[in-house]
Automatic annotation (TrEMBL):
Transmembrane segments: none annotated. CDD domains: RlmI_M_like (cd11572). The keyword Transport does not apply. InterPro entries: PUA-like_sf, PUA_sf, RlmI-like_PUA, SAM-dep_methyl-trfase, SAM-dependent_MTases_sf. It comes from Fructilactobacillus fructivorans. This is SAM-dependent methyltransferase.
Amino acid sequence: MKKIEITGKAVKKFEGGYPQISEKDLVNPADFSNGEVVALVKGDHFVASAYFGKQAGGIGWILSRKENQSIDDNFFGHLFSQAFSKRILLQDEGIDIHRMFNGQGDGLAGLTIDSYDGQDVISWENSGIYQLRSQLISVIINQLGDYQNLYEYRQFEHGSEIKSVESASPDPVSSANVLEGEVTYPVSLQNAKTTGLDVVYRDVRQDVFDQAQDKIGLNLFYEGTGVANAMIGGGTVKTVNVDDSNRAKSQLINEIDANGYTIGAQEVRKMSVFGYLDYAKKHNLKFDLITVNVPVFVRDKKDRFEIKKDLGKLVNAVSEVANQDASIFFTTDTNKMNSKKFRSEISDAFTQSGINVNFGKTYANPSDFPIDTDYEREGSFKGINVQIK
């Protein structure tokens, strides 16, 4: 294993638990070699083994702080075995859509694995770890046990699509209908840029389903969340679903078809969310159950939205189309705003509008999305259910 000299400041950082390497941590930045597994040292002092791979503003990740630890199949096998065993409880509970491996939270940054009832999808998040692909796939196969097919997606590569892993997919499919609770979700598994269903929204989907009976629903920025499908499945009288994305519209139509819902009771609009909210206000349209998956940034012909600047305005616009006693789910999946700030911005917006609300259940990374608290204080996913009084 090649030895890479690091700075004294970097020694303190890594020995304190921080896992990500930056270029300034290297005495000689030219030592960077993408995909290489190295020993980080200060003189004769071993600090950690790591691999180089550019991601999230860094150039690599710590693998182990044990000097005598070989970075081999046994090392990676232990990481995957530990992670997979922690998901057994979810599988025993019949939760077939879950995250099997969550990158740094499970001890190996740059790689995640999502399971859709045995159709398992690896996401490679940087090109460095992808250099270890053959070794890691072999280890993953040995540790997975029961699965149907294995797929992969090069998240670091623009335009990449999901493909089956030939050596680990005896019967690959282009898509699969997967049951979560009482709702079927079509999942794209080949020649698509996303599966169409983000696992992390699972708990929100269930709670939206539980509240949907006989309600008039509105879903905003719903692409990939599955919440619109859950709401319809829960028994709404009617839904309006708005997203300025062709993919969102086609995904929802596929979900409606897979579940045999009546399309006539569902309004699926590809348009500006802000434009629709203006339209709904002018026409005095009101909703009992609303989901808003808040984007970090969005721009259309007339509007520009940034979560840090404009969340309050969005909350105000949503509140104007909410019925008395309406239930609203606000979610977002970003590290640009922490959960405390997210809640306070929403609370302040309602207060300034003179609307009384009760704050109900809050959402964070579910148990299959562990985080490394030495790297981040909380996971990127956050949400809250608000009840208008």
